[in-house]
Amino acid sequence: MAKFKKKKKGGSGAINTASLPDIVFMLLFFFMVSTTMKEVEMKVITRLPEATELSRLERKSLVTYIYVGVPMRQYQRSHGTEPRIQLNDQFATPEDIQSFIAQEREAMREHERPLMTVSIKADYDCPMGIITDIKQALRRAQALRINYSARQGDDLAYNF
Fold this sequence. Notes:
Elements: H1 20-34, E1 44-45, E2 50-51, E3 63-71, H2 76-79, E4 84-87, E5 90-92, H3 97-107, E6 117-122, H4 128-140, E7 146-148, E8 151-152
């Protein structure tokens, strides 16, 4: 007489994981293609001044940029040819800087707020009056860490 074994109930087969790497790479590729870094649309022309003693900023995520320069050609009809201030993607006045700084601080984590640095990217030919107005507005906003952006230049020769 032969012995018959009973089939076990409730058991299911193993899950096939052969296509898992394909799915992971598809998701990775999708996020790489669809993600964009935050970039500001430049509306002013900035030719940075040259400097010999430069240092790099440590954490660029803590830097807020203020651009100063002559509006680009397509914006000159509506904004003129005098140097203007650009905050993010729009033109602004020195009075707008205080609320801009407050808004940027709110977007940061609380422990990083004291480390916030404001970088002024001003055109080489920009009048100093605009820079002074910006500095006064930053002082009223309690943004006292200021950086001036420049490009690396050769040793500057002074002619006397």
